[in-house]
Amino acid sequence: MHKTLQHIRVLLGAQGHFWTQARAAVLTVLTTHPRPLRAEEIHRALQNRHINLSSVYRALRLFETLNIVRRVTLGKGAPRYELADGYRDHHHHLVCDTCGRIEDVTTCPVEAGRLPQQIQRRTGFAVRSHVLDLFGLCRSCRRRGVSTTESG
Amino acid sequence: MHKTLQHIRVLLGAQGHFWTQARAAVLTVLTTHPRPLRAEEIHRALQNRHINLSSVYRALRLFETLNIVRRVTLGKGAPRYELADGYRDHHHHLVCDTCGRIEDVTTCPVEAGRLPQQIQRRTGFAVRSHVLDLFGLCRSCRRRGVSTTESG
DNA sequence: TGGCAAATTGCAAATAATTTGCAAATCTAT
DNA sequence: ATAGATTTGCAAATTATTTGCAATTTGCCA
Ligand SMILES: [Mn+2]
Ligand SMILES: [Mn+2]
Ligand SMILES: [Zn+2]
Ligand SMILES: [Zn+2]
Prior knowledge:
The structure is a homodimer.
Chain A: H1 3-14, H2 21-32, E1 37-38, H3 39-45, H4 53-65, E2 69-72, E3 80-83, E4 92-96, E5 102-105, H5 109-112, H6 115-123, E6 126-137, H7 139-143
The complex binds manganese (II) ion (2 copies) and zinc ion (ZN) (2 copies).
The site of one manganese (II) ion has 5 residues of chain A, from loops.
The first copy, chain A, binds a DNA duplex through helix 2 and helix 4.
Protein backbone atom coordinates (compact mmCIF):
# COMPACT_ATOMS: atom_id res chain seq x y z
CA MET A 1 0.00 0.00 0.00
CA HIS A 2 1.08 3.57 -0.78
CA LYS A 3 2.85 5.34 2.08
CA THR A 4 0.26 8.12 2.19
CA LEU A 5 -2.60 5.65 2.37
CA GLN A 6 -0.91 3.77 5.17
CA HIS A 7 -0.50 7.02 7.02
CA ILE A 8 -4.13 7.97 6.57
CA ARG A 9 -5.23 4.50 7.59
CA VAL A 10 -3.49 4.91 10.91
CA LEU A 11 -4.95 8.37 11.35
CA LEU A 12 -8.47 7.08 10.78
CA GLY A 13 -7.95 4.27 13.24
CA ALA A 14 -6.66 6.65 15.87
CA GLN A 15 -9.85 8.67 15.49
CA GLY A 16 -12.11 5.67 15.81
CA HIS A 17 -13.00 5.38 12.14
CA PHE A 18 -12.88 2.15 10.16
CA TRP A 19 -10.63 1.47 7.23
CA THR A 20 -13.21 0.32 4.72
CA GLN A 21 -13.31 -0.78 1.11
CA ALA A 22 -15.12 2.36 0.09
CA ARG A 23 -12.76 4.74 1.88
CA ALA A 24 -9.65 2.99 0.65
CA ALA A 25 -10.99 3.00 -2.89
CA VAL A 26 -11.83 6.69 -2.86
CA LEU A 27 -8.41 7.56 -1.48
CA THR A 28 -6.72 5.40 -4.07
CA VAL A 29 -8.46 7.27 -6.84
CA LEU A 30 -7.46 10.58 -5.32
CA THR A 31 -3.82 9.64 -4.88
CA THR A 32 -3.72 8.14 -8.35
CA HIS A 33 -5.28 10.99 -10.31
CA PRO A 34 -3.33 14.23 -10.02
CA ARG A 35 -6.21 16.63 -10.50
CA PRO A 36 -9.30 17.70 -8.56
CA LEU A 37 -12.16 15.30 -9.25
CA ARG A 38 -15.93 15.56 -8.87
CA ALA A 39 -17.75 13.07 -6.67
CA GLU A 40 -19.27 11.69 -9.83
CA GLU A 41 -15.89 11.27 -11.50
CA ILE A 42 -14.47 9.48 -8.50
CA HIS A 43 -17.47 7.21 -8.49
CA ARG A 44 -17.06 6.48 -12.18
CA ALA A 45 -13.41 5.59 -11.62
CA LEU A 46 -14.69 2.95 -9.18
CA GLN A 47 -16.81 1.28 -11.88
CA ASN A 48 -16.13 -2.37 -11.12
CA ARG A 49 -15.68 -1.97 -7.36
CA HIS A 50 -19.46 -1.90 -6.74
CA ILE A 51 -19.37 1.08 -4.38
CA ASN A 52 -22.37 3.34 -4.09
CA LEU A 53 -22.22 7.02 -4.94
CA SER A 54 -23.60 7.76 -1.47
CA SER A 55 -20.56 6.11 0.02
CA VAL A 56 -18.31 8.27 -2.10
CA TYR A 57 -20.05 11.34 -0.74
CA ARG A 58 -19.84 10.02 2.79
CA ALA A 59 -16.16 9.24 2.45
CA LEU A 60 -15.41 12.65 1.01
CA ARG A 61 -17.32 14.35 3.79
CA LEU A 62 -15.35 12.46 6.43
CA PHE A 63 -12.02 13.14 4.75
CA GLU A 64 -12.85 16.79 4.47
CA THR A 65 -13.60 16.99 8.16
CA LEU A 66 -10.32 15.30 8.97
CA ASN A 67 -8.43 17.61 6.62
CA ILE A 68 -7.34 14.74 4.43
CA VAL A 69 -9.16 16.06 1.41
CA ARG A 70 -10.15 19.55 0.42
CA ARG A 71 -13.04 20.73 -1.66
CA VAL A 72 -12.15 22.91 -4.61
CA THR A 73 -14.78 24.94 -6.43
CA LEU A 74 -13.57 26.06 -9.82
CA GLY A 75 -15.69 27.50 -12.58
CA LYS A 76 -18.98 25.80 -13.40
CA GLY A 77 -20.49 22.62 -12.11
CA ALA A 78 -20.15 20.52 -9.00
CA PRO A 79 -17.22 20.99 -6.64
CA ARG A 80 -14.10 18.91 -6.96
CA TYR A 81 -11.97 17.15 -4.38
CA GLU A 82 -8.24 16.59 -4.04
CA LEU A 83 -5.81 15.52 -1.35
CA ALA A 84 -5.21 18.28 1.15
CA ASP A 85 -1.95 19.98 2.01
CA GLY A 86 0.10 17.55 4.04
CA TYR A 87 -0.82 14.64 1.79
CA ARG A 88 0.57 16.31 -1.29
CA ASP A 89 2.47 19.51 -2.17
CA HIS A 90 0.92 22.86 -1.37
CA HIS A 91 -0.24 24.34 -4.66
CA HIS A 92 -2.70 26.58 -6.45
CA HIS A 93 -4.66 26.43 -9.69
CA LEU A 94 -4.64 28.06 -13.09
CA VAL A 95 -8.08 27.69 -14.60
CA CYS A 96 -8.72 28.47 -18.24
CA ASP A 97 -11.90 30.50 -18.72
CA THR A 98 -12.25 29.12 -22.20
CA CYS A 99 -11.53 25.41 -22.14
CA GLY A 100 -11.81 24.84 -18.42
CA ARG A 101 -8.44 23.16 -18.20
CA ILE A 102 -6.82 23.16 -14.78
CA GLU A 103 -3.06 23.44 -14.22
CA ASP A 104 -1.18 23.50 -10.94
CA VAL A 105 1.26 26.14 -9.74
CA THR A 106 3.41 25.62 -6.70
CA THR A 107 4.60 29.17 -6.24
CA CYS A 108 2.72 30.63 -3.33
CA PRO A 109 2.60 34.41 -2.92
CA VAL A 110 0.77 34.03 0.36
CA GLU A 111 3.56 32.20 2.14
CA ALA A 112 6.23 34.12 0.26
CA GLY A 113 4.77 37.42 1.37
CA ARG A 114 4.18 36.23 4.92
CA LEU A 115 0.58 37.36 4.58
CA PRO A 116 -0.69 35.15 7.42
CA GLN A 117 1.64 36.76 9.95
CA GLN A 118 0.83 40.20 8.63
CA ILE A 119 -2.89 39.59 8.93
CA GLN A 120 -2.63 38.06 12.36
CA ARG A 121 -0.70 41.09 13.58
CA ARG A 122 -3.02 43.62 12.04
CA THR A 123 -6.43 42.05 12.54
CA GLY A 124 -6.07 39.33 15.13
CA PHE A 125 -7.35 36.74 12.67
CA ALA A 126 -5.24 33.56 12.84
CA VAL A 127 -4.86 32.24 9.31
CA ARG A 128 -4.54 28.47 9.10
CA SER A 129 -4.98 27.78 5.42
CA HIS A 130 -5.85 29.46 2.17
CA VAL A 131 -7.18 28.88 -1.29
CA LEU A 132 -5.86 30.72 -4.31
CA ASP A 133 -7.04 30.12 -7.83
CA LEU A 134 -6.04 32.11 -10.88
CA PHE A 135 -8.28 32.46 -13.93
CA GLY A 136 -7.44 33.46 -17.46
CA LEU A 137 -6.44 31.94 -20.78
CA CYS A 138 -4.23 28.90 -21.04
CA ARG A 139 -1.49 28.88 -23.61
CA SER A 140 -3.30 26.95 -26.30
CA CYS A 141 -6.49 28.98 -26.01
CA ARG A 142 -4.50 32.18 -26.12
CA ARG A 143 -2.67 31.12 -29.26
CA ARG A 144 -5.90 30.22 -30.92
CA GLY A 145 -6.98 33.78 -30.21
CA VAL A 146 -10.05 32.61 -28.35
CA SER A 147 -11.94 35.27 -26.44
CA THR A 148 -14.46 34.81 -23.68
CA THR A 149 -17.18 36.55 -21.75
CA GLU A 150 -16.71 34.26 -18.80
CA SER A 151 -16.43 35.55 -15.30
CA GLY A 152 -13.29 34.92 -13.33
CA MET B 1 -29.46 56.48 -8.72
CA HIS B 2 -26.05 55.34 -7.45
CA LYS B 3 -23.15 56.09 -9.78
CA THR B 4 -22.22 52.42 -10.08
CA LEU B 5 -25.77 51.45 -10.96
CA GLN B 6 -25.96 54.14 -13.60
CA HIS B 7 -22.74 52.82 -15.06
CA ILE B 8 -24.00 49.26 -15.13
CA ARG B 9 -27.30 50.38 -16.63
CA VAL B 10 -25.47 51.88 -19.58
CA LEU B 11 -23.33 48.77 -19.92
CA LEU B 12 -26.39 46.53 -20.05
CA GLY B 13 -28.03 48.75 -22.64
CA ALA B 14 -24.93 48.70 -24.80
CA GLN B 15 -25.04 44.92 -24.77
CA GLY B 16 -28.69 44.74 -25.73
CA HIS B 17 -30.00 43.85 -22.29
CA PHE B 18 -32.92 45.60 -20.62
CA TRP B 19 -32.79 47.57 -17.45
CA THR B 20 -35.53 45.88 -15.48
CA GLN B 21 -37.07 46.05 -12.04
CA ALA B 22 -35.61 42.72 -11.04
CA ARG B 23 -32.09 43.51 -12.22
CA ALA B 24 -32.06 46.95 -10.65
CA ALA B 25 -33.36 45.52 -7.39
CA VAL B 26 -30.74 42.79 -7.23
CA LEU B 27 -27.98 45.25 -7.94
CA THR B 28 -29.27 47.62 -5.32
CA VAL B 29 -29.13 44.90 -2.72
CA LEU B 30 -25.59 44.02 -3.74
CA THR B 31 -24.35 47.60 -3.66
CA THR B 32 -26.11 48.19 -0.37
CA HIS B 33 -24.91 45.16 1.56
CA PRO B 34 -21.12 45.00 1.89
CA ARG B 35 -20.78 41.24 2.11
CA PRO B 36 -21.24 38.27 -0.22
CA LEU B 37 -24.89 37.18 -0.24
CA ARG B 38 -26.63 33.95 -1.20
CA ALA B 39 -29.30 34.01 -3.90
CA GLU B 40 -31.80 33.23 -1.16
CA GLU B 41 -30.59 36.13 0.99
CA ILE B 42 -30.81 38.56 -1.87
CA HIS B 43 -34.30 37.34 -2.59
CA ARG B 44 -35.30 37.76 1.03
CA ALA B 45 -34.00 41.32 1.02
CA LEU B 46 -36.45 41.92 -1.82
CA GLN B 47 -39.39 40.84 0.31
CA ASN B 48 -41.93 43.50 -0.63
CA ARG B 49 -40.76 43.99 -4.21
CA HIS B 50 -42.63 40.89 -5.46
CA ILE B 51 -39.72 39.53 -7.48
CA ASN B 52 -39.40 35.83 -8.07
CA LEU B 53 -36.42 33.81 -6.87
CA SER B 54 -35.97 32.58 -10.44
CA SER B 55 -35.45 36.13 -11.55
CA VAL B 56 -32.81 36.62 -8.90
CA TYR B 57 -30.97 33.59 -10.24
CA ARG B 58 -31.40 34.81 -13.80
CA ALA B 59 -30.10 38.27 -12.94
CA LEU B 60 -27.11 36.86 -11.09
CA ARG B 61 -26.29 34.59 -13.99
CA LEU B 62 -26.35 37.48 -16.42
CA PHE B 63 -24.26 39.71 -14.16
CA GLU B 64 -21.74 36.97 -13.69
CA THR B 65 -21.37 36.57 -17.44
CA LEU B 66 -20.87 40.29 -17.83
CA ASN B 67 -18.34 40.36 -14.99
CA ILE B 68 -20.48 42.66 -12.93
CA VAL B 69 -20.87 40.16 -10.13
CA ARG B 70 -18.67 37.32 -9.01
CA ARG B 71 -19.61 34.10 -7.33
CA VAL B 72 -17.82 33.35 -4.09
CA THR B 73 -17.86 29.90 -2.56
CA LEU B 74 -16.85 29.97 1.08
CA GLY B 75 -17.29 27.17 3.56
CA LYS B 76 -20.58 25.32 3.65
CA GLY B 77 -23.82 25.94 1.86
CA ALA B 78 -24.84 27.69 -1.30
CA PRO B 79 -22.47 30.06 -3.11
CA ARG B 80 -22.57 33.76 -2.47
CA TYR B 81 -22.44 36.73 -4.81
CA GLU B 82 -20.85 40.14 -4.57
CA LEU B 83 -19.97 43.01 -6.93
CA ALA B 84 -16.95 42.17 -9.03
CA ASP B 85 -13.65 43.99 -9.18
CA GLY B 86 -14.23 47.21 -11.07
CA TYR B 87 -17.50 47.88 -9.26
CA ARG B 88 -15.85 47.82 -5.86
CA ASP B 89 -12.35 47.53 -4.40
CA HIS B 90 -10.27 44.47 -5.14
CA HIS B 91 -10.23 42.40 -1.98
CA HIS B 92 -9.99 38.96 -0.41
CA HIS B 93 -11.70 37.14 2.44
CA LEU B 94 -10.90 35.95 5.92
CA VAL B 95 -13.32 33.17 6.80
CA CYS B 96 -13.62 31.90 10.35
CA ASP B 97 -13.73 28.10 10.48
CA THR B 98 -15.64 28.26 13.73
CA CYS B 99 -18.29 30.94 13.46
CA GLY B 100 -18.31 31.35 9.69
CA ARG B 101 -17.85 35.10 9.89
CA ILE B 102 -16.41 36.73 6.78
CA GLU B 103 -14.05 39.71 6.87
CA ASP B 104 -12.45 41.55 3.97
CA VAL B 105 -8.75 42.18 3.43
CA THR B 106 -7.53 44.52 0.75
CA THR B 107 -3.87 43.58 0.81
CA CYS B 108 -3.20 41.44 -2.23
CA PRO B 109 -0.08 39.27 -2.31
CA VAL B 110 -0.84 38.27 -5.88
CA GLU B 111 -0.55 41.74 -7.32
CA ALA B 112 2.17 42.70 -4.88
CA GLY B 113 4.30 39.75 -5.91
CA ARG B 114 3.58 40.27 -9.62
CA LEU B 115 2.52 36.63 -9.77
CA PRO B 116 0.47 37.07 -12.97
CA GLN B 117 3.47 38.31 -14.91
CA GLN B 118 5.67 35.60 -13.47
CA ILE B 119 3.19 32.90 -14.43
CA GLN B 120 2.63 34.27 -17.89
CA ARG B 121 6.36 34.29 -18.51
CA ARG B 122 6.94 30.82 -17.17
CA THR B 123 3.90 28.92 -18.33
CA GLY B 124 2.27 30.96 -21.07
CA PHE B 125 -0.96 31.14 -19.08
CA ALA B 126 -2.42 34.67 -19.18
CA VAL B 127 -3.88 35.41 -15.76
CA ARG B 128 -6.86 37.75 -15.85
CA SER B 129 -8.25 37.46 -12.36
CA HIS B 130 -7.89 35.53 -9.15
CA VAL B 131 -9.66 34.44 -6.02
CA LEU B 132 -7.92 34.23 -2.67
CA ASP B 133 -9.65 33.28 0.54
CA LEU B 134 -7.97 32.72 3.89
CA PHE B 135 -9.39 30.42 6.53
CA GLY B 136 -8.69 30.23 10.24
CA LEU B 137 -9.93 31.62 13.53
CA CYS B 138 -11.29 35.11 13.85
CA ARG B 139 -10.25 37.19 16.83
CA SER B 140 -13.25 36.51 18.99
CA CYS B 141 -13.26 32.77 18.37
CA ARG B 142 -9.56 32.62 19.08
CA ARG B 143 -9.97 34.44 22.38
CA ARG B 144 -12.71 32.13 23.40
CA GLY B 145 -10.23 29.32 22.85
CA VAL B 146 -12.52 27.59 20.41
CA SER B 147 -11.00 24.73 18.47
CA THR B 148 -12.29 23.13 15.32
CA THR B 149 -11.92 20.10 13.11
CA GLU B 150 -13.18 22.01 10.11
CA SER B 151 -11.40 21.88 6.82
CA GLY B 152 -9.99 25.08 5.39
C1' DT C 1 -9.84 -18.27 14.47
C1' DG C 2 -14.40 -17.17 15.55
C1' DG C 3 -17.96 -14.02 17.57
C1' DC C 4 -19.90 -9.73 19.07
C1' DA C 5 -20.85 -4.84 19.11
C1' DA C 6 -20.21 -0.77 16.72
C1' DA C 7 -19.54 1.47 12.43
C1' DT C 8 -20.49 1.57 7.62
C1' DT C 9 -22.81 0.57 3.29
C1' DG C 10 -26.37 0.08 -0.42
C1' DC C 11 -30.63 1.44 -1.91
C1' DA C 12 -34.47 4.14 -2.31
C1' DA C 13 -36.64 8.05 -1.02
C1' DA C 14 -36.05 12.89 0.67
C1' DT C 15 -33.89 17.49 0.39
C1' DA C 16 -31.62 21.43 -1.34
C1' DA C 17 -30.24 24.36 -5.05
C1' DT C 18 -30.80 25.85 -9.51
C1' DT C 19 -32.81 25.73 -14.16
C1' DT C 20 -36.40 25.76 -17.64
C1' DG C 21 -40.89 26.14 -20.63
C1' DC C 22 -44.28 29.15 -21.71
C1' DA C 23 -47.94 32.63 -21.53
C1' DA C 24 -48.32 37.17 -19.65
C1' DA C 25 -46.03 41.46 -18.51
C1' DT C 26 -42.36 44.80 -19.26
C1' DC C 27 -39.13 47.42 -21.76
C1' DT C 28 -36.81 50.00 -25.73
C1' DA C 29 -37.06 52.29 -29.64
C1' DT C 30 -40.01 54.38 -32.86
C1' DA D 1 -48.94 55.22 -27.89
C1' DT D 2 -47.49 51.07 -30.61
C1' DA D 3 -44.79 47.11 -32.13
C1' DG D 4 -41.47 43.86 -31.44
C1' DA D 5 -38.08 41.86 -28.63
C1' DT D 6 -36.85 40.69 -24.00
C1' DT D 7 -37.88 39.38 -19.43
C1' DT D 8 -40.72 37.67 -15.69
C1' DG D 9 -43.65 34.66 -12.66
C1' DC D 10 -45.03 30.24 -11.76
C1' DA D 11 -44.94 25.53 -11.74
C1' DA D 12 -42.61 21.66 -13.06
C1' DA D 13 -38.08 19.57 -14.13
C1' DT D 14 -33.16 18.87 -13.19
C1' DT D 15 -29.02 18.31 -10.73
C1' DA D 16 -26.38 17.59 -6.64
C1' DT D 17 -26.23 15.86 -2.18
C1' DT D 18 -28.16 13.86 2.08
C1' DT D 19 -30.64 10.57 4.91
C1' DG D 20 -33.28 6.40 7.12
C1' DC D 21 -32.83 1.79 7.81
C1' DA D 22 -31.88 -3.13 7.25
C1' DA D 23 -28.01 -5.81 5.78
C1' DT D 24 -23.03 -6.12 5.74
C1' DT D 25 -18.39 -5.10 7.12
C1' DT D 26 -14.83 -4.00 10.32
C1' DG D 27 -12.09 -3.79 14.74
C1' DC D 28 -11.21 -6.08 18.85
C1' DC D 29 -10.57 -9.75 21.89
C1' DA D 30 -11.38 -14.22 23.90
MN1 LIG E 1 -4.98 20.85 -7.26
MN1 LIG F 1 -16.07 40.17 -0.50
ZN1 LIG G 1 -0.46 29.03 -1.14
ZN1 LIG H 1 -5.87 39.88 -5.06
